[in-house]
Structure formats: C-alpha cells, structure tokens
Amino acid sequence: MGFSKPQNTKRFSGTALRALFIGAFLAAILLPFSDKAFHMDDPMYIWAAKHILSDPVNFYGFNVNWFGIETPMPYAMKNPPLVSYYIAFVASIFGFGEKAIHTAMIIPAVAAGTGTFVLAKRLCSMPITAALICIVTPVFVISSSTVMCDTLMLALWIWAIILWMEGLDRDSHFLLLAAGLLIAMSALTKYFGISLIPLLTVYSVFRKKTPVLWVPAMILPVLVLAGYQIATETMYGRGLLFDAADYAGNLRGESGMQYLKNGLNGITFLGGCVITTVLYIPLIWSRRVLFIFLVLTIVAVILLWISKDAGTVVFASGAGSLDRHLAIEIPVFAAGGAGILALSVRDLIRRRDSGSVLIMLWLTGTFVFAGFMNWTTSGRAILPAAPVAGILIARAMEENRALEGGLRNYLRFFPLAAALLITLITAWADYGFADSARGAAEQIYSRHSGRGGVFWFQGHWGFQYYMESLGAKSVDWKRSSISRGEVIATPLTNTNVQSLPDSIFTRMEEVESTPSSRFSTVSAEAGAGFYSSNWGPVPYSIGPVFKDRYMVDSAKTDLDLKSFRE
C-alpha cells in the first residue's frame, strides 16, 4: 500500500522553495557590493566592534572624534550596540576587511527579505510579489550594502511580528515570549524597534485576545530596555535610551519644527526610497484617481519649474536653491509617498481587519518618525516602510479587477523590472561615492605623507576611517596644535569641516573625483540627501553629478587650533 505525502508537507516545501528564491535573488543583488568601502556612519559601528573584542561588557568605553572634537563614544553614538556585537563576532573569525563584514551583513538582509515573504503570506495572496516589491527598492539595497544597524533591526522587527501573530493564533506563550525577545533585540539594534511595543499592543487588543496571554510577553522587552537604560546610566553617566530621544528632539528644536516642510520631505523620501510605490500607481488605483494623481503631479512640476525659489520655502536643499531636475523628482516622489499613505487608509476602510490595522499603524508610524521625530529625514529612517509597502501594493492588486486572469501575472512584473534598474543604478552611485573617499584618502596620503610631522585631516565618515587606517590624525578643534609645514587634508562633501584661510595655509593640491555619471545619493549641489535631508530634498538625484573635492593644505606657521577657531 503506497503512501502519499501529506498536503501540509507539500505546502511547507513550496513555501521554503519560494523563500529560498527570495533569499538567493537578494544575495545575488548584494554580493557585487561586498567590497564597498566603509561609508557614512559605518566606522562608528566598526570601532565599537573592535573595542568589544577587547572589552565585551563596556561596549562604548572609548573616545572618538566624530564632530571635530574628541568625546566619549556615548556622546557621539546615538544607536545601541547589538549590530556591533554581530560585527565583532564575524570579525573575530574573518577579520575586519570590507568583504568579510559586508558579506556577513547580507545575512540579516536575507532574513528581512524572506521574513517579508513569510509575513506577506499571512496578509495577501501574492507574497512573492510583495517581497520583491520590498527588496528591489533603493532604500533596501543601499541600507543592506552598509554595515549600519538598520537592516538587522528590520529583520528582527519582521520576525518578531511573525512570531507574535503566530503566538496569538496558537495561544502559545512560548512563541509570544520568543517574539518579545526579538522585540528587545530589535530595539537594542536601533531604538526605533521600541515602536513594536505599542504597535503589537494595539494589534493584540484589536484581535480581542485576552491580555493574560500576551501581556507577560510584552513586559519582557520593557524590562530589557529598562535594564539597558539603568546599566548605561551606571556605566556612562547617561542612560543611552533616553539620551538618544533627547538628541533627536534637541536637533529638531534647534532648526524649528517646520511641520509642512518636514511632512513634505517625509512624503518625498517615502516615494523615492520605496520607488515601487510610484511605479505601481497605474496598477492599484482607478482611472479617476490616477487622473487626479497625474494632474496634481503635473501642476506641481510646472509650479516648481517656473519658480525655482518657490520650492526652497518648503524643500530646503543644501545648495540653497531648487534646481530644475528637482522640480520633476520632488512631485513624482511625493506622489508615490502620498499614494502609499492613502492606500493604507483605503485598505483599512475596505477590510477593517487586524491585518489592515497593523499595516496602517506600521506605515504611518514609520512616516511620522522619519518626517517629524528623527533628527533628520533619511533613507535609513524610511527603511521599515519597505516591507509594508510591498504588502499593501500586493493587497491592492488583489482587489483590482483590471488585473484578473493572465494579464495580472505579467503586468505586475513590469514595475519590478523598472524599480530594479533604478535601484541598481542608485546603489552603484552610492558605491562610487563611498569608494571615492577611500581612493582619495589613499591617493592624498601616499603623495604627502613623506613631509614629516603629523599628517592631519578634517571630516568624518569613511574618509576618516581610511585616513586613520593609513596613519593620519583627525583634527581636534579644541586640543590639536599643528606645526609649520604639516599637512591637513579636507573633504568638502563631509561634515564638521572648517574652512582654512589662505593667510595661514598654503594650498598644495586639490583632488577631484566623480562618483557616478548621472545619479547622486549625497550631494548638496544636486539636492541629494539619502542619509540626511540636510543635504537635499530628495533621497537620490537623477541629473547633474558634481565632483567630490578634497583640499590638501600646508600650515605656514605653528598653530593652536583652539585659538584659531575662536
């Protein structure tokens, strides 16, 4: 007598194969970026990891020069240490080389991508499409090609939700406690993970599950975070959890809370970072709504085009003016951002189920944090919106009768192909920007390090990491003294950089580098500010690319930098 395989085994096998496809596809996208130079805030996590290897408990017990002045690490670092522990573990086996660390960071990216598929399987009938919509976005690929905390936080976030939902379905205290542990780990990777506590609390109440089942599990991350706050207060004289919140609030307060500007920047970054929200508009809205979107977008383009100064009131760019190419990008990106927010409201009104509540709160919470609560609007803050945007778009396509039958299976992949192309070009532009800092550091140091004395430099991010790796020393504007003839290198596309007057310094060389041909992710001149809207009103710019410039100067006389700055 023969036996057939149980149906649930077949279902599991099919799910596993699809998840494997998502993971393999994502790894294939990310592997070419594995030799990317350490970039932006990457060095902070690398330095913490190096310190952890020598002092595992006192993770931030060292000094760092990140703002032009040497300070204790807790004053400069506003994210928790879990990703640095992960980097330290990887580096203890494979070392701190770019390929080793970047390859290891593909693992949390794959976990986030496959987790999106598993979660989407619960919430829509097209989970592969939903997962692909998430991962073929600039924000997901660029964030996953750094060594910062964002992708690991997202992976833990998604799997915490999956386990929580499964725990409620099965009335399982074990699964709920496991989810509670992942919530705590997500928050200790990036503080935004704390948002899971109110998000899943509301979801659980909406599910009308008895609090006796899930409240004990929710207490777990609260206790862990309270312990972290107390421990860091004892270790560093400041509880790092509340300190990060104060930091963001103070910076927002210093610049003034311009709600209109912040909201529109948030919408623009949402549409640009998750570019699939723009490309899927024709497939998820009725012709009437599509016509309204099109008219409003065209009107906005015309208004911004004919009056370059009009946009600067709302869309402040590092260049101080609104260039013509931004007059097109801003309305298009904003249409995508507004469209996905409106879609979450429509989904809630039509379905009125626990999934729609979760989706709307997840998306709007991310938008509010990125636009109004974080110290700046950035792609990193928008990243948690990518999975929920994919699920929302897939749910919308389920309801669209125009995509029924065979046509549905083909049309939905055209926007994916376009999004993948934009994403890869944008990610390579960011790769080029990172590599230009590494190349400039090596070129400048090799040409000028033989002059004797200390080789100084300004600036931070990856340029700082590679200059210090070569033996140069970061300028401390309160303590450093430069001797006559010593060299100081200055990157212009960087932070906390001081101008050096010709009366005191002699220009020796100006090094220029063009990161890419048409796309920019960080350029005040192009209005691109993927890592901070302080650089520009769009996350990436499609248009003129400006050269990165590095100045090399020599001191004409002995100089105390503290008195010079004063």
| Count, helices | 24
Largest sheet: 5 strands, mixed
- Give the helix/strand class: alpha+beta
**Cα radius of gyration in angstroms:** 25 Å
- Number of beta strands: 13
The average pLDDT score comes to: 85
Q: How many angstroms does the end-to-end distance come to?
A: 91 Å
- Strand adjacency order, main sheet: 4-3-6-12-7
Helix content: 55-70%
Strand content: 5-15%
Features:
566 residues, alpha+beta, two-stranded antiparallel ribbon
Brief synopsis:
This protein is α+β, with helices and mostly antiparallel strands and 566 residues long. The chain is 62% helix and 8% strand. Among the domains are: 152 residues, no CATH class; 137 residues, no CATH class.
How would you describe the overall organization of this protein?
The protein is α+β, with helices and mostly antiparallel strands and 566 residues long. Among the domains are: 261-412, no CATH class; 429-565, no CATH class. The chain is 62% helix and 8% strand. It is built from 24 helices and 13 strands. The protein has helices at 7-30, 42-54, 73-76, 82-94, 98-123, 127-135, 138-144, 150-170, 173-187, 196-206, 211-236, 240-255, 259-273, 276-279, 281-284, 287-306, 324-351, 354-373, 379-382, 385-399, 406-411, 414-448, 461-470, 561-565; strands at residues 63-65, 70-72, 455-457, 473-474, 481-482, 487-491, 505-513, 519-520, 522-523, 528-529, 541-542, 548-555, 559-560. A hairpin with a 4-residue loop joins strand 1 and strand 2 (70-72). It is globular. The relative contact order is 0.11.
